[in-house]
Amino acid sequence: WSDHDVSILLNHFSKNTSQMADASNFKDTVYNAAVNLFIPLLSAGAFKSSAVITRKWTSLKQTYNAILTYQDKSGCHWDNVHGAGI
Hints:
Elements: H1 3-15, H2 28-38, H3 50-71
Helix pairs in contact: 1-2, 2-3
InterPro entries: Myb/SANT-like_dom (IPR024752)
Pfam families: Myb_DNA-bind_3
Protein name: Myb/SANT-like domain-containing protein
C-alpha cells in the first residue's frame, strides 16, 4: 500500500461514515465500493479485493490505537513526521 492508496482509502471511509456497521467498522457495501476506487490505479502489485481492504482498515485502526495508547503514557511524545524519534 502506497501513501496515496491509503489516502484514497481514508478519504473514501471519511465520506461514508454514515455507512458504519458499528463504532469502528463499515458495512460490506462500503468495502466493496472501495474496490472500484483501486481498479483504475492497478498497474503493479496485488489486486485490492474487499477482503484486502478490510484487513488494511483493521491494520490502520490497530496502528492508530497503538499510537493513542503510547501518547497517553506520561512523558511520551508522538509526531506525525518523526514518530517517537524526538
